[in-house]
Each structure stands twice: as C-alpha cells, then as structure tokens.
Write a structure and sequence with these properties.
By secondary structure, this protein is an alpha/beta fold. It is built from 35 helices and 28 strands. The mean pLDDT is 90.
Amino acid sequence: MTPEEKARIKIDQWLTEAGWKVINREEYEPTCTAVAIREGLLKGNLEADYFLFINGKAVGVLEAKREETDAFSAKVCEQAALYAKSVPNIYQTYQKPLPFIFTSNGKELYFCDFREKDACFIQIMTIPTPHELVKKLGINDYFAGLPTLRKKGLRNCQYEAVTELEKSFRTGQNRALMVLATGAGKTYTACLAAYRMLSYTPMRRILFLVDRNNLGKQAEGEFGTFRLTENGDAFNTIFTVNRLRSASIPADSNVVISTIQRLFSFLKGEAIEDTDDDDDNELTEEVALPDNPNLPHDYFDMIIIDECHRSIYGNWRKVLEYFDTAKLVGLTATPIPETIAFFNNNRIVNYTLEKSIVDGVNVDCRVYRIKTEATENGGAILEGEKVKEETRYTGEIKTISNKETKTYTNKELNRSIINPAQIKLILSTYRDAVYTEMFNDPQREPNMDYLPKTLIFALNEAHATNIVQIAKEVFGRTDDRFVQKITYSAGDSNELIRQFRNDKDFRIAVTCTLVATGTDVKPLEVVMFMRDVESQSLYVQMKGRGVRTIGDEQLRNVTPNAFSKDCFYLVDAVGVTEHEKTVPTATDEPTTKTITLKELLERISHGYIPDEYLKRLAATLARIYNRADNSQRKEFENLAHGDMKELSARIYTALENDTLPPFINANEPNSERKGLVSPLANHADARRYLLILAAGFVNTLMPGEDTLISKGFSVEEAKSTTEAFEEFCKEHSDEIEALRIIYKNEGEPITYSMLKDLENKLKMANNHFTSKQLWNSYAIVNPAVVRRSTTKEESDALTNIIQLVRFAYHQIEKLDSVVTTSKQYFNLWLGQTQRNITDKQREVISRIVDYIASNGACTIRDIREDDATQAAQMIRAFSNMQKADEALHSLYTFVVLRKSA
C-alpha cells in the first residue's frame, strides 16, 4: 500500500464518520444527500482528490497528501484554492468559487472558509458534518444536510426504507408508503426516520399514529429503547416522547403517540382517559371537526401512520387532512389498492413476507389441517333434542327441547349454533398431534406443561369463552393460567400479552382480533384458526403473528423443552388456507349513517315513514321470516295481529305501484303509510319480538356430536414442493458447483462454503427449499424411507443438503442424516486403515469427525482459520500438510458419502 493510499483510507474514515458517503465518480446519483466524490473532475481535465456535494450541489474540495507531506504548506493550500476556483460547468454549485476548502495528509486536517475576506487555513480536529456546512451556508432547503445513513445495525430493508423516504421528501413528495413484512422492524424504522428528521431538519413535532392503544404503549417502549443515535443515547433522552393520555400535550413534546380516535377527542377538547375503550370506536358517519380545534393545523411536521392499511381514510380522513402541512408516512405489511392510492402511489419500499423468510428475518409456516364433519358440512338438531338457547337481544338463557328437526350449515356454526363436540374434537386432535406429528424433528419432550405457545383465533367473544372452557377439559387443567382469553373484555390486554410472551405457565391464548395485528410474541410456535377469514390483508396479519424469529436460549426461557424455532405451525381447522381471499376496498368517501332496526321501529311508531324506511322495513321482515321457524312466525302473528310475510309483501306492492302520497314530514296525516305499518306501530310487543328475532338466538347443543374426517399435513403441497426441488436440482446441475459435484458422484469434496452457496440459492429460488421443509415434505410423501432427526445436531446439519440432493438424484434409496451414522462410519474408516493409523493420529482426527459430518469436507487451511493449534497438531501427527489433507478427504468420503476412499 502506497503512502497516498494509507492517507486516503484515513480520510475516507473521517468523512464517513462525519456523515458523508464516499464514492467513486461513476457511482454518483443525484438523489444522494451528502457525498464525497473521489477524483472529482476539474477544468482542464484536472482532478480534485475529493469533491463534497450536498443535495446534488458542490460545496467544497479536499486535497489529500501522503503523511510525510505538510498539508499546511503554501503549495498545498494554493493548489486546493485553485481547485475551488476550477469547478467545471457540469457540476451544480451553491456558489463559485466553492466556499469550503480542506487539506489533509491523513494525520492533520486544515480548513478554509473561502468566502471570508482574508481567508486562511486553520487546523481542525474533525471534518464538519453536512448539517454543519448547511448551517454555515444558510441553505434554505428543508432536507439539505441529512448525513448519509450508515448500514451498520440495520437490516437491508430498514436501510432502504429510510434512504428512499429521504430521497422522496427531497424530490418534493409529501406522502410515502413503506411496505415492510411483519417482523421486519417497522417501528424501529419509524424511530430511525423520526430521529433523523428531528436531528437534521427543521422538523420539531412528529405524530406517531397507531391502530390500537396497546400498540401505542408498545411503540412508546420502542422509542425508549432505540439507541441508533449519534452518541448512542436512547431516543427518549434526546427528544421528548409522550403518549396522548390526557387533555393536554406537554409543550416540549417532539413525538406524540396516539390513536386517531383519541386524537379526534383531543381536537374536540373532550376529556381523555388512558384506557382501551376507544379502540372499538368505529364510526358510522364522517367525523365533523370542531370550529376551533385544540391544535393548530400546522402543529405536526410529519405524521407516521402505523398499520395504515386499516380504513382510516373514509370517516376519519378529515382528522388527517386537518394537519395539511404535515408529511404523511404510512407503515404496513399488507397494503390494499386504496392504501397505495392514498399515498399517491409512492411506495418507497416493498419488503414482502416471502423476501423476509429468504433473508432469515422471519420463519415460514407448515400447515396442519384438521377436518371434522360439523366444520365442513354442518349438522342437524333433531326433534326432541335438548339445547341451551340464549336470546341475544335480552341475554336470557334457558334449556328447551327442539320442536322440529333443523339443519345448520358450517357458516352458522359458532354463530347461531354452538357444538361443543366440534370444539372438543379439534382441540383433542391438536393435543394428540402436537408432539407426535409436529414437533418431532427432532423429537421434543412431550410435556404438556410446556405445550408450544399457541394462539387460537376465535370467531367472537362467546366462541372464545367456549374454547377456553373446553381447552381446560381437553388438556386436563383446573387452573386459570394455562389457557386464557386475550380480548377486550378480558382485562388489561397489554399485561396479558406480556404474560403470554414471557410466562412459562401461560401456554394457550384465545383471541378474536385483538392480537391479530402489530403484537409481537416471538416465542409463539402455533397459530390455530378456528374461524375463517375472507380478507387477504387481515389473514396475512393474523398469520404473521407466528413468523417472528427468536434465539434458542430466549425460546427455552419460556418453553424449556424446545430446541429452536425454525418454522411455526398453522393449524387450519376451518379451511382458511384453502380458498381465495378478498382484497377489501376502503373507500375515500365518508359513509352515510345507518340507523339501527330499533331506531327505525321507534321512528315509524311516531309517524316518520319515508320511502327508504319502508323499503328497509319490508326487506327486514322478509329476511327474518325466511329464517324463522313456524312457532316464531305464529308468535309474531299473535302479537302483531298480522302475518309477517304478508306485511312485507303489502309494503313492497305499495312502493312498486307508487300508490302512496309523497312523504313530506311527520306532521302530515300520512294515513296510507301509517295504515301499512300499523301492525308494528300499534303493537309495542310485536316490535320488541321483531328485535328479538332480528338479533337471533344462540343454540348450544348438549353435548352435540362430531366426527373426524381427516388430519395432517397436505400430501399435495409436500409433493409439489419435492417435485419443484427435484426439477431445480436437474435444471441447475451444471451451473451450481455443489449440485455439479453431487450429480457427477465421483467423490469430489463439497466444502462448507459450497454448501452455504447452495443453501442460499435454494432459498432464493423458493422459500420452501430449506433443508427442514424439504426433509419434512419428503417424510410426508415417502414416510417409509425417510428417517426423522432425533437430535438438534442431526436436524441442523448443513450436510443434510447433500443427502436431500442425492435423494432427489435417486443416488440413495433412504433419506437420513450423515450425523446419525458418523461415529459408525468413523470406526469403519479406522478399521480399514488400522495398519497405518497411530494413536496420536486417531486422537487428533477424532475431534474433526463431527465437524465433517455436519459441515462437509475441509482441509488443514480451513481448520487453521478456526483453530490454528488443532491444525498444527494434525500436521505433526500426519508428518506434513499433504498427508493430513489426504486423511481428511478420505474421512469425508467415508463419513459423508459413505464410500471407501
């Protein structure tokens, strides 16, 4: 390395530490925020050692010299000043000559502000940051001076998200959408973006908008632990972070965390209590902002909207648009078309779940399907069978004998019909399969006290309650810890989620949608669907609860019998994985308020009977008549003194024939209209009974019955995976080194680096092409010839890839791990070479057998990189390096390829 190169390395480091991105001339991009271009062009084909650019415009030069050269000498300083005057016209500048000049020899650093009248060079200790030079220049550019973001400590997707966000803002965009897979660190990315905006731009206040209050508390914690700051201090010690929890915002707040519901209450000046009660505050009509909102419209400089795929744009849109000067940043894992449109189609990063699995950020799932007769086809309640009937409208519960045989569909199950036998059968099937069919590679100790953390999605609150009660019976539990609900009615949801995440004795959580989005439970290993889901975005969010990775020790802290989390299991008890999902449309238009049936009947009874109310009443009567049984129809007729079906038909006929005088207001006689609805208007008992029928009944079978149709992993999916893998191996047998060697089958060594290369290429081709997924797929397709792992060492061995490929090429008839037989084949190797092997050679090479069995072929050079002492001992034992390498190769062919060398 020349003295000039040594000086350049030091100067590159100084520039990088100050926030400049050091690049070569051909690597320049106009969207770069702060760059130092090496060998920048000057007039007359001269080159400056470094040209400094901020937001695409040159601001200074740096002349670099070798360490022996005096960087403060007149000659060097004059040369640098000449360069500042010789900027070619192809470069944009803030002013000419360039204002800032630096000289350095990699040891000392000198600076001159060329704008000063008697400009002279002075020694400085560090290169100024872009932000400092922007201040000196007085550049009136909001985003000038943002230091170049360093990748250290960031995932690639996070680095891309923040750099692209800043590029987007610099080009004038006011809205930007980040699509980041669940588990990719959306909140961490938001913390980084917020930190940089507050630190290096004039932004002073940022609103972090969350979907639910428990996610607000989670976000508040993440801002407290975020330390990717200039000096490593926590974010909340540099800037003030406040969650909106009262009717005042502290004046020094830099980050305010809130739900949109709570923010709206604040704008109206309402009292705010720190509870989760406003989470379910779904509006039926567009919000109306007060005349004098509690905050000025320009209060926030930027609004970050978490889980922005939710429908916050229709009825809530005015709250967002009130802050009309703020830049909007959306975060989601599952955008819908309306989300993308709301952010002006400016999707700055698109990091999908599939990409995150390939990158090892998340784990993939295996689907275990449970089919029962009731779940698939519904069932029947026979005449005379006893059922527990709950009247939804009144809450009254009574035991009755069924008066006539009724069938129910699978759609009615767990809505109007509860069959405890169906719930019990699903949970019992899961209990029996969890250790025998799921967590058996390697075999986990079948201890139900440490059942893998399981999250069950229920249809509604009542269904969740039934699941908890029956799960206690199925798993033989009398305590209230093993299985619990996490729903809005279950108490402090944040505390319950924390306990589920951390406590050993809380194994099954049952929820509806509270834990469906945003909640981070890394030790979760099973997600069970006991409800169907039609929405694609909601399904991905719910499924995403299981994808988080976790360290082995961390996992064992809450699940002591676990080995590692390489995938999670999606237990599908309703067919949720087997049908196309819909992409919901979240309209930008506010919805029209829809009155309840109770309000409709009340207004009709007071003579307020416009056409739209008559249409609604006729449709409701027809719908209720069609689902009512004969006894219910007769009861209505007794109370209303008229038949429900005939009443509906009379209203429809009057509207279709246009025989009614127009409705003006309730003060008019409206005799014809009043006559039509008199059976209801004149009989309060009939109206109340209609409300009871509309709300419906929940019939719980006592005890009900159900039969298992099938259970297990999908043979079709496993076959599809193995066939695709075999096709991949065939297609790439010439171009991927490890595949070429295995295909030729001539005993050529396959090293650790070759196997890692193949492993990465397989993941990139298909996220199901991991060793464990492929092994499991072959076990499903050909169980008789596949041996499952019994230890973590067998399951994790990199050489399993060799076995899988050999099996795909039909070179071996049985699929098993070479780790299983490594000791046996080592002894065979010793036996074959016993006349040549010494005790010392046997001792040193025995320490390497496990490594070869797990990681592939190695040489003395490979061993030396990890353990120089071990390598030296091998060379001494075998006389020289060549003989030691020959022994290692011979051992590899015996242990891994199971051939004699």
